Each structure stands twice: as structure tokens, then as C-alpha cells.
From TrEMBL:
Superkingdom of the organism of origin: Bacteria
Stated name of the protein: S1C family serine protease
UniProt keyword list: Hydrolase, Membrane, Protease, Serine protease, TPR repeat, Transmembrane, Transmembrane helix
PANTHER family, sorted: SERINE PROTEASE FAMILY S1C HTRA-RELATED, SERINE PROTEASE HTRA2, MITOCHONDRIAL
């Protein structure tokens, strides 16, 4: 091996090692496999799960109650009318029909899927609402004062005069923002048909969840139910706590159930309470495979499959696709969990620029900054420099190969040997 080769080979080896290093570093994978499924699902899904309020406020003129009490013929009549009067003084003459449930945002411009029975109250006509208002008020008064509900109902019918009805349909986002909403597609309450509705709020750049394939669900697949159980209102929770959703884990118990009307249902064993209705049931990938609907017990529940939900999404004109906030947010989470806090902070700040009400983003930005001292170097962001190095190194390697092994060194021309001159002949 010539002198050129001995000089060139070490340089070529160093350059090749550098190229190999750039390939390895440039293709570094984000490893966040240490994050548990439940944590990942909650982080992905909770920003897109909302509370849906749908109710009618019935206003009554109850001025006759006190007058009738004054002329009560019996003590029982006096006591019943007194309880009714006290109740309406406290409620300012109002009754409420309806309630609240949960839902999931499926498009960044404000389309939300929920149960039809969650948004059914405001679709009733005035007569239906008045009747429902009398029944619910009678039941509530009877519970509060330990009275016979049928007698309370009779006194209400006899003494109250209806004045007006106000219909309310609102959505509360995890950020605490409150929006009016409109119903864009409606099935039928459970027991009457497909329990799905699509509603819309006027907002943009919202976090979303994607609809999965419920037909691919298998028995005992892990699922998670996310929503706002009504039991939370019975506890002494702070106002902030009331806008924090809950997540319950479970499995698919049966996939071929049907309602009495023949609508398909998925049976699950995850715990759920009133208020969870309409909330998403998500799979391991964080996609919606159903919407929770009514069940006979907390541990035996049913979900309307996403294949049915898709029908109503199509009717509404909604486009179920990830928005820019979703992409940046999920990228940021993966970087954060893997220890690349600089890249995570960059994504989270971009999310904040697009949607500063995102419920998780300020906390994540703060935590990313706090952990910056532990930041790992994310080499793929230097790919452009790696490509430049690889190109220059390749040119140098080619040159050295040609220089060492192809080109032959020029040989100096050899000077022919001149024979020694014979001694000069002298003269004698």
C-alpha cells in the first residue's frame, strides 16, 4: 500500500464514522413508552370533552298560592300550600326541565357529538314542558318536605299560572368558557331511536377527538369513559373542580347488543354516573369508539357505537379531522414525556398562540421551562447541517479514494548513466 493510501485511509474512516453518526442521530426516535395508557388517554382526550347543558326555565305566577292557603279548609291543605309557597319564593317562581350531560368536540370549528337525550328538553313544545315542569316540581317539593307527590301535583295544577318559558342550550369547555349552541343533527332519545345528536358552538382552533372504528372493537378491549358525572355536584367541590372531567377505565363486555328499537349498542363495564351521558368512550389510541348512553347500573353501561355516530356527523356537515392545535399539542406531549423539553416548549407555545384557552397548555409551558435543565438534545432538528456534512464528506472521500488508489504518482524521469570517460591519452 502506497504512501497516499496510508495517509488517506484514516481520514476516510473518520469521515465515514461521521456520516454513520449523522444517520443515527438524525433518525433518533422519540421514546415515550414509559407513559401509562391511562395518562396518555387522559392527556389526549380531556381538552376535547365538554359539558352540555340543555334545559327549559318555566316561570310561574304563584301569587294565588298564598291566597288559597289563607282560605285552606284543612290543616293538610294549609301545610301543602305553605310548602309550595315557600318553595317558589326560594326559586323565584321558576321550575327547570332538563339537565346536563357530556360531549366531545370532533372538529376544530366547534362541532360536538353527544346523546340525543342530553339535548332533548329544549325540543319539547310548551305544553310538554309545562307538564314535565309540574311533574318534576311536584316530585322535588315532595322530597324536600316529605309530602305525597300526587297531592302536591294536584295543588300545583290548581294554584299555579304559567307565564313564560326560556329555552337554554349551552356548552361549557374545560377552560370554563361558556358558549350557546345549536343542534345540527338529532336522532332520538334512548328508548325511541338512535341516541345521538350533533351540536355546534361558534369557536375555532379547538382541541378535538377523532372517531374510531367501532366495527373493529373486540371483546375485552380496554376502553376509557370520559365525562362529567353529576355526582360531583353533590359534593363540596371548588368551582374549578367542576370543570375537570373524570376518566373511568373498563372493557368491552359485548359488541352485538341492540336497543328495543333495533339500534346497535356496545356494552361496557366502566363505571359511569348521570352527567356522563354523551361522553366519549375511547380506545387505546384515544379515538372515540362510542358515546356513553343510559345503563341500568353504574357498572353496566352501554355506548352508541361510532359507526352510528358517523351517520349524524355526516348529516350535520361536520368534518372530523385533527386541527393544527391537535397536531402541535400531541407532538409537544410526546417530546415532553421523552425529555425533550425545548422541543415540547416550542410546540406548546405554538398551541397557546392558536388557542390560548387550551385547558392544559399554561401548566405544560410552565413545567417545560422548569425542566429545561434536564433537556435532552433532539438531534433530528440538525438534519440540515447533517446533510451538508454528509455531502461534503462524501466529496472528500471520493477525492481521497481517487487520489490514493486511482491516480498513480508521477515518476521522475531517470537520467541515463554516462559511462566513465576513458583516461585521456597523453602525448609522448
Amino acid at each position: 500500500m502506497g504512501k497516499r493510501a496510508w495517509i488517506s485511509l484514516p481520514i476516510i474512516i473518520v469521515l465515514l464514522a461521521g456520516i454513520a453518526a449523522t444517520v443515527i442521530l438524525g433518525n433518533t426516535k422519540i421514546d415515550a413508552t414509559n407513559v401509562k395508557d391511562a395518562k396518555r388517554i387522559a392527556a389526549y382526550a380531556e381538552p376535547a370533552v365538554v359539558q352540555v347543558y340543555n334545559y327549559a326555565v318555566i316561570n310561574w305566577d304563584f301569587s294565588a298560592v298564598e291566597a288559597f292557603q289563607y282560605y285552606a279548609a284543612t290543616e293538610q291543605e294549609y301545610n301543602y300550600l305553605g310548602a309550595i309557597n315557600e318553595y317558589f319564593v326560594a326559586t323565584e317562581g321558576r321550575s327547570y326541565v332538563g339537565g346536563r350531560g357530556s360531549g366531545a368536540i370532533i372538529s376544530s370549528n366547534g362541532y360536538i357529538v353527544t346523546n340525543a337525550h342530553v339535548v332533548d328538553a329544549t325540543r319539547k313544545n310548551d305544553d310538554e314542558l309545562i307538564m314535565a315542569g309540574l311533574e318534576s316540581t311536584a316530585s322535588e317539593i315532595a322530597d324536600i318536605y316529605s309530602l305525597d307527590p300526587s297531592l302536591v301535583y294536584a295543588y300545583l295544577v290548581y294554584t299555579l299560572n304559567f307565564t313564560s318559558i326560556q329555552r337554554v342550550q349551552k356548552v361549557v369547555l374545560p377552560s370554563g368558557e361558556v358558549y350557546d349552541s345549536d343542534t345540527k343533527a338529532f336522532g332520538a332519545p334512548i328508548g325511541e331511536g338512535k341516541d345521538v345528536a350533533v351540536i355546534k358552538i361558534d369557536a375555532n382552533n379547538l382541541p378535538t377527538l377523532q372517531l374510531g372504528n367501532s366495527d373493529a372493537v373486540e371483546l375485552q378491549d380496554d376502553i376509557w369513559v370520559i365525562g362529567y358525572p353529576g355526582a360531583a355536584e353533590l359534593r363540596e367541590l371548588s368551582e374549578d373542580s367542576q370543570i375537570v372531567s373524570t376518566i373511568a377505565a373498563g372493557q368491552v363486555s359485548a359488541k352485538d347488543k341492540k336497543s328495543e328499537q333495533g339500534s346497535p349498542l356496545i356494552q361496557i363495564n366502566a363505571a359511569a354516573l348521570p352527567g356522563n351521558s354523551g361522553g366519549p368512550v375511547v380506545d387505546r389510541n384515544g379515538k372515540i369508539i362510542g358515546l356513553l348512553t343510559a345503563g341500568p347500573t353504574e357498572q353496566l353501561n352501554f355506548a352508541v357505537p361510532s359507526s352510528t355516530v358517523q351517520e349524524f356527523v355526516a348529516q350535520s356537515g361536520a368534518k372530523n379531522a385533527p386541527g393544527p392545535v391537535d397536531t402541535l399539542y400531541r407532538e409537544g406531549l410526546e417530546f415532553f414525556w421523552a425529555g425533550y423539553y425545548e422541543e415540547a416548549l416550542d410546540r406548546f407555545q405554538k398551541v397557546e398562540q392558536l388557542y390560548d384557552k387550551h385547558p392544559k397548555i399554561k401548566q405544560l409551558i410552565s413545567e417545560s421551562r422548569e425542566k429545561m435543565g434536564q433537556n435532552k438534545t433532539y438531534w433530528p432538528k440538525y438534519k440540515t447541517y447533517f446533510y451538508i456534512y454528509d455531502g461534503v464528506a462524501a466529496v472528500i472521500i471520493i477525492f481521497l479514494i481517487i487520489f490514493a488508489f486511482v491516480l498513480k504518482p508521477k515518476q521522475r524521469p531517470q537520467t541515463p548513466e554516462v559511462p566513465e570517460s576513458p583516461p585521456e591519452k597523453g602525448t609522448e
